[in-house]
Amino acid sequence: MAKIEDKIRGQIIPYLSGPIKEIVGALPAERLRKLEEIRLRVERPLLVRLGDEEYAVKVTGELTKQYNLGYTVGEEDLERTLASVSQSSIYALEEELKRGFITLRGGHRVGLAGRVVLAQGEIKTMRDFSGLAFRVAREMVGCAEPIASRLIVTGRRILNTLIVSPPRCGKTTLLRDLTRLYSDGPANLNVVVIDERSEIAACYQGIPQLNVGNRTDVLDGCPKALGMMMAVRSLSPHLVVVDEIGRPADAEALQECVNAGVSVIATAHGTDLEDISRRPIMAGLLASGVFEALVVLSRRKGPGTVEAVYRNPSSGGNSVSKTGHG
Description:
disordered C terminus, alpha/beta, 28% helix, seven-stranded antiparallel β-sheet, 11 helices, eight-stranded mixed β-sheet
């Protein structure tokens, strides 16, 4: 498997404008290894995020906390980078513009900032771009192994599970690795990923760029509620995987999956069981007993720290595991 710094050099840096390509390319391997984001904002400093720390980047490639010393991104930098990312056809990427990001080969994402154009209350496109956010796609193969065996019963059935975590705490990374483990593991499960925001499998031209297993099908860019029903009707899954539920339609579709005998693993933003229980949709799902297990994550020991695993959270949450790393 290629090192992350080699992937960044081969799959992200070539898209950057000439000056920024040289600046970021000058970062040593140990810096690139920790790189999570590259931020280009017109007439503002070039910023990079390494773990929990954000820095401006000088013309020399040095990192600094003094933002006024960073390289100032110009309009031409943004235009050339955007042209490279879109292969000089930005307005041909209609669906990507509606979603606000473009997925690159390797699963990396480029978030778009600019003027949003609406039509009948729906996002039609974007224009007058002012910022780009490159997010490095990272896999942690094996990170879900400590909890995978706790979420499976009778050899093949997966407990209907909700993974709860604040942003940037590794819930999508954990979800992806669980998908891989159940797809490729001894259970031999058919898995369908409903990847509305192209974050789990990170498809590029329809092909998953991240490892979600050999028995996994992906409905990329598909709304969660519609995708869950499509999967049950047409792909015969044992397990459906979906990220960031929270709408009434999501809850209805999730219930339909369970009623059809299909297991579901989903995620939701939150800090703990009490937090998500304050939201009507999530409270209803928990009270109905749909979820048989709940996993709570944090960054306390780094992204993916498993704070607790609960069984039967509808009955108050009997914690069977406290802390650890998943």
